[in-house]
Amino acid sequence: MIIDLGTISPKKVSLFKVGATTTVSNVTLSYAYKEGRLPPGLAIFPDGGIAGTCGERIFELDQGDTTFDSDKTSFEKTYVFTVTATGQFGNVTSDQAFSIDVVRQTSDKIGNIIAKPRPDSTSLASFQSLINNTKIFTNATQYRPYDANFDTKIPSFILLSGISLKLLSYIQNLLKENSYNFKLRVGDYKLALAKDRAGNTIYEVIYSELIDPNSGANDSFTLESHGLKNITIQLRTDTLEIGADAGLNIPGTEEDTIYSNDVVNIQEELKAGLTVNNFDYLPLWMQTPQSVVRGFRLALPIKYLQPGAGAQALYRLKNEINYDPKQLDIDIDRLIIDDNLGTTFNDLSRLTYTGDGSTAIFTSPYRVTKPNHLIITVDGLGVTDFSMLGDITADTPHISTDTVLYSTDVNDPDSSQIVFDTAPIDGSTIDVKLQPTTFGKRVVTTFDGVDTTDGNTTFDNNGTRFTQEEVTFDRKINPSFQLMFSKSANTDGITHISKEPKLVRSV
């Protein structure tokens, strides 16, 4: 018999747990994976917890757009696996099969936006001393100390959950008006419960409210409405050079509007350009009614605890500990995107050649136009003395013979060759791979050697084709990525003054 544990969606945190009973007295059972397949990103731990965040690598076609029988089809994947329960003396053992269904809620890839303060070392050490205090948070009362999703030693909090991911550059461009450095105050300790649909408490969390001193501020206000003069844009240099986006104000012009960085305004600025399923991907404790309140809360998690352990821990925090959470600085100058598009780029296209002392031209494994798109090493040493050669395709190609400048729509040549200034010596090892980060407007994966122009998956003559309009490739790095605020104050971008001989300003 297979026991069905339920369903989970990509980017959801697993709260599944298995357990067994025995008639043998004084036996502590531990659990381990035996065989089968778990959903991607999940693992079984000795206490029976199935922990992790469900990954994206499940079966899909055309990002959910493929239809059969004149009806849109959603795909779900059932994962079946066997768990072994063993007594501490090895005298009791039993196997049981379980299943979990993975069902997509959306065809989009989902991520969360996290704010992570960076307190000084002294403040951080004091905070971590509190988190690690075993007199308050005993080992037996902690909820899933092995699960990174419930680790609070590095303070962080959710700003937006369940966003449909876009290019990082796209998200950065949304942060133009209301998003700049902000500081929050830490409030009192509070307790919240996380309950399933049947009303069973899964875990408890002690958290501190975060108070926004700018809460309730208008999106913007005019200086004139407050009896103030307009701000004149100034740049003072002997020699001035400005390279920037079109949004940079021109010296000599005036600005009469100030934008506020109330947290709500920051959230709304992001929501205006992103599809957000904020509630569905919130932590379970925010989805659970606490009195009459349910939904997003601006809060700093302190500790996740087993059901029933929160009240006592909260009492001890308030009455037996000298640490005041208000001493923790919550200064935010960046946002963390906890997932990133394209982090699973196929590294198999990497190629290695052997030099013969005379050959200077090699085939590139990537269709690129510029040398800085590639990292090439010869016998382990990086080289830059090479150029790219290939047939460029574009609606309107532009070639300047003086600078050999190529401009194309998608920067996608039909083929590419690597041309060394000097042929690598005989016996040398030439390693060719893509730069750690590249950005593309249209990336296509094809099967059966066919590249078509439409966006549909086809079978039969054209083979199978998957497309993604905007992809960020970040290979071999943490999928989380930091986006710095481009402004540190609400007047940044309005008044620019420099006494340097040269000012270069870019996005």
Q: How many beta strands in the DSSP annotation?
A: 33
Count of DSSP H/I helices: 5
Work out the count of structural domains.
3
Strand order of the largest sheet: 1-8-7-2
Sequence stretches where pLDDT stays below 50 over 5 or more residues: 60-74, 342-348, 403-412, 437-453, 459-477, 495-507
Identify the CATH architecture of the largest domain: Alpha-Beta Complex
The Rg value, from CA coordinates, equals 28 Å
Under the CATH scheme, which class of the largest domain? Alpha Beta
User: Could you name the CATH homologous superfamily of the largest domain?
Assistant: Cyclic phosphodiesterase
Based on secondary structure, the structural category is mainly beta
Principal-axis shape equals globular
The residue fraction in helices comes out at under 10%
Looking at CATH, which topology of the largest domain would you report?
Cyclic Phosphodiesterase, Chain: A
Content of β-strand: 25-35%
Biggest pleated sheet: 4 strands, mixed
Mean pLDDT: 78
Report how far the terminal alpha carbons are from each other: 59 Å
